[in-house]
UniProtKB/TrEMBL annotation, chain A:
InterPro entries: Bact_Chemotaxis_CheA, CheA-like_dim, CheW-like_dom_sf, CheW-lke_dom, HATPase_C_sf, HATPase_dom, His_kinase_dom, HisK_dim/P_sf. It catalyses: ATP + protein L-histidine = ADP + protein N-phospho-L-histidine. The modification Phosphohistidine is found at residue 49. GO terms for biological process: chemotaxis. Keywords: Chemotaxis, Kinase, Nucleotide-binding, Phosphoprotein, Transferase, Two-component regulatory system. Gene3D superfamilies: Histidine kinase-like ATPase, C-terminal domain (3.30.565.10), HPT domain (1.20.120.160), SH3 Domains (2.30.30.40). Involved in the transmission of sensory signals from the chemoreceptors to the flagellar motors. CheA is autophosphorylated; it can transfer its phosphate group to either CheB or CheY. The gene is cheA-1. This is Chemotaxis protein CheA.
Automatic annotation (TrEMBL), chain B:
This is Sulfate transporter. InterPro entries: MlaB-like_STAS (IPR058548), MlaB_ABC_Transporter (IPR052746), STAS_dom (IPR002645), STAS_dom_sf (IPR036513). CDD domains: STAS_anti-anti-sigma_factors. It comes from Dactylosporangium siamense. Residues 5-90 form the STAS domain. Pfam families: STAS_2.
Amino acid sequence: MTDDDLADALDTFITEARELLQDFEEGLLGLEDEPSAQDSVNALFRTMHTLKGSAGLFGLHHLVAFTHVVETVLDSVREGELAVSAELVSALLPCGDHVSSMVEGVAAGRLDATTSETVDGDRLLAALQPFLTLSSPLAPVLAEPEVDTLRTWRLTLRFGPDSLRNGMDPLSFLRYLATMGVLERVTTLTDALPDAEQMDPETCYLGFVIDFVSGAAKADIEDVFDFVREDSQISIVPADGQADDYVKVIEGLPDQDRLGDLLVRSGAVTDLEIARALQIQQERNRTGDSLPPLGEILIETQTVPKPVVDAALGKQRKTADSRSQETQTIRVYANRLDKLIDLVGELVIAQSSVGIHRPDEEGYDEAQGEVMRLVEEVRHSALSLRMVPIGTTLRRFERVVRDVCVDLDKDVDLVITGGEAEMDKALVERIGDPLLHLVRNALDHGVEPRADRERQGKPIRGKLRLNAFHDAGSIVIEVADDGRGLNRDRILGKAVERGMVQPGTVMSDHEVYDLIFEPGFSTVETVSNLSGRGVGMDVVRRNIAELRGTIEVLTTAGAGTTFRIRLPLTLAIIDGFLVGVGPSAFIVPLDRVTECVELPPNAAERDCMYLRGEVLPFIRLRTIFDIAGTPPRRQNVVVIEQSGQRAGLVVDTLLGQFQTVIKPLGVLFSEARCISGSTILGNGEVALILDVGPLVAENVSREQVLV
Amino acid sequence: MKDALIIDGELTVAVAAEQQARLRAFLERGTAADVDLSGVTELDTAGLQLLLVARREAAQRGITLTFHNPSRAVHDVFVMAHLDLDGAPR
């Protein structure tokens, strides 16, 4: 296999491994509910077996060694030697997580376990020990071939003043080093020696600089100084002139994302040194306001010579560059791809049929119509390639609910419905976090403790429902609990206390419940482990708004709360409203537009107008975007609504509704606010898509002060 | 005639205080000094730094301090630390 083939195969392995691990977790959770299901046991065993086998093909010894043990445990379950218990499931679940993290490590280019992974792995395997029957001994871990090359290290050793008193004789370290390699040059550092009269005979003053030639790995040399590391300064760096060798090694390494990993793999740095540098980084971050780069710290503490760090940085950058869009893969249903190709074929035929008719001929219009229809269908079909069922995302919460319930000592059943509803893959990925927050919130604050439920005559087991369905061009996701419901008085009280609402304001229930989405609002007095950590519902709403979605809350006191998220099916196409200002065209998302009116002639000098007795502040797009030319005699106002706030956009012409394919703006425009993207119009010109939220927020609040 | 100090037994942290006193008292006396190390059975860092300080101290006072007849233990340490028995560290 060439390198490329191998990389492709590895990608496939990673994708497959992720799926297997998902199955593994689901299977385990299912097993807990139904411990005797032989099918699930078999399936579980197979996931680990397959993983182990595939990992072996790629020489991922750390994965093989770990999955082997898990497989062994599952094998004895399969053979009936071991019964399924909650303890077993609890021990196996984190094993799945651990394998996941190793697989992600492989995806990031790490083909060996890191020290922390090894430690985690050992701990998890120790937890599995009680389940391992004697009949199935652990297979020996495949031996790593170790290639020893002689390297020269520059060791600078300054021992702590108390070393001698603690029975650590620096000379004995030199003696020990001499058994591992050759002390090529030793300089005894006497600069710390005090004058004779001030000298304390039991304090250690001497240090050594040693050029040490050895085949031992850096970590092994480091280990020599384990006992004195705390109060001594020990530095082990490649000797002068060796930096080039490391640069070469680093350049030959497989792609890695993390600087530390690169340096450790090159042998120039040990895990411990990286850990120490990271610690320094953290401390500086706490004291100063900037995060110093890891590489700089490593150079500064003289852990690694600069050229080596530079080489690693270069490699890191190259890795990041190469992992661009084109290496990402997406799984699509084969039948959808076939259908798309079919449609494209039909389109080509229809196109040629247009070609053979003259415009005035009979059948031309028909052929033209057919092309239009097919284009529409192709677009539809192409978009559907990105659609995935939301079920996978929802089922992930089974684990969350289980873990959170254990933490909170509550019994809650998770019911998932509508998992087959489909939505854009990009959306699915980004909705996970807000959903997670809602689920935790519902379990923590929604569902009451057992005793409370019993007192109210509710079933002791709470119920959390995740439901998804399509509704009028959008997807709706509901998170519903059967808990205590929102407390209107408490929310209102808190809002008054926080100065968000004037005391005595009359508000509808809906308005009151909406307050929980306001920034800085949290009714929980004590911060619990799960929610109430400042990441409030306002963040949830903001995240959802970023996806051009909305969230609302429905609640009945004592009977439960439902959060309803409504999202567009795709991020790629929106219904837009096209407007013109001078020679420029802009798109306003149609769902933000409430109406269009003509700009009253008397409003020409002001930045607001009366609309049915209410003041409507407006924004002149001509001014904001600095468009030259005089406005026409008649201008129009597009009334938009954002988070309950209304504002007008003054434009020259209204050009009507427009199916807008969103093209993201390049990095150059990443700082541009008020614009969320661009699109290409039928005439080939570019129109900017207005980002209504910031546009209104930035321009109208100022107006309101003036009004 | 030159003074001579014979150090024997251990020259280690365990007896560093006594040996330091002896070396210093010895330096107080003479103008040129020989230290005979033939009887040193063990030398550790504490001992080594005592010898190095003594030599530096002597130089500051204009005394020539020389180490003589290094025992096997002393010789090994000086070789390992790449130090010169007669003069300054290499």
